[in-house]
Amino acid sequence: MVNRQFRAICDRTTIPDRRYPGGRVRRRRTASAMSPLMLVMLAISVAACSSAGSAASPPKTPTEPTSSAHANGGRGPAPGVTANSVTVGQVDDLGSPIPGLFKGAEDGTKAYFAYINSKGGVNGRKLILDAQDSTFQSGEVAVATGAQIHNDFALVGGFSLLDAAEKPLIDIAHVPDITLPLDTGMVSDPFVYSALPNPVNNYPLGFFKYLQHTYPQAVKKVGIIWAKATPATAAIEHTFETAMTSVGIRIVYDRGVGPFDTNFLPDIVSMKDAGVRMFISLELPDNFAAALARQMQQQNFTPINIEGAAYSSRLLALAGSAADGMFIFQSYPLYLGQDAKTIPAVTQFVAWMKKVDARPNFEIESVSGWISAELFAAALKHAGDPPTRAGLISALNKTTLFDSGGLIPLSNPAGEVSSSCFLLAQVRHGQIQRVPPTPSTGFFCPTSSGYLTSPGYHRIVRPTS
Question: Domain range spanning residue 387?
Fold first, then answer.
């Protein structure tokens, strides 16, 4: 999944600002923290292509939300609600910029709905998904969202690089959007509820403190390669690097790569010259991480190798023996199967994904769709009978503890508080395995990790209706 997104990146320009030994560059600017989903940064990077891709056809005019779309807190039937069902909307990037780009989000949402419907639905009502293709145009996102606000009860599980187009519509209509947002403005929107919150400018330091404590010498010589595509990816990388340096990690080599930069030999030579002892990339997808590992092996370069977005069913096949020893850092269990025996939610997720699609997309977006659907269903139980949007918002505002049965660390969707918990795995003898400090099930949660809070950061203020 990640490699398809990364290849779609348009911007390959160098952004000069600050140089490190080895002559590479990075940009400095204020950024938002997107810690739980390293994959999101790669997804956002594809948006660099959007202006060119959508210029051929003018944006459509969105459906204007009517007063009945949000003023139904007890004064009339809510859109999308019948005696037997509740229909919710979702907009995904499906046909463009890459066919099937975020199909996983639809698969994951449908899978959870199928599961809960098999148990009778929620309060006797089956859940129905109205999923629409964004066609990778902001205007189409707005049109589809406007129609769904008018016709459907809420928005659940959508995944679009252009989700910013939803913001004015959900704010006007007071419609809750239960999803993992990509746009930084959506991250802080009071009507957006994320099962795995990504609060702006409040980055958890737990993993970096773990590295500093466990590898005190290696963190003095760190090399970084990251996905350079847009100002957004540069800004987010700045947040990561600021968090690293705040706990004593010293970056001596740093380069942002474009979508076709698969030759890492110059980087390896420069990192060797700089004495790099630890390599960290929170953004490289499986094929890039595999290519880098193979080239490191060829050059007999053996730093501690930590990847944050390489976990996939293809990684081991792509990297071969060069993957041995590679660490994988993420905020999800090993949902491709390794954790199925110890985490029932993983088994459930895999089983229902296969039931709704003969060839389901097992990827981060799939998990996002599932956990968003579960968060919605849990709140819907307490949204009234018949449910109202005001009742749903009230129930979401009370959801301060959520972990989707172990698919994510314990989070606070209502308070928009990110978790400092993480999972660390390693490739050993051709197998991806949990390794310390990660327990045999669940996540490692540092007791005193803290957050790097940017000036001006404040907790989100939720609507009351």
Answer: 48-199+349-406
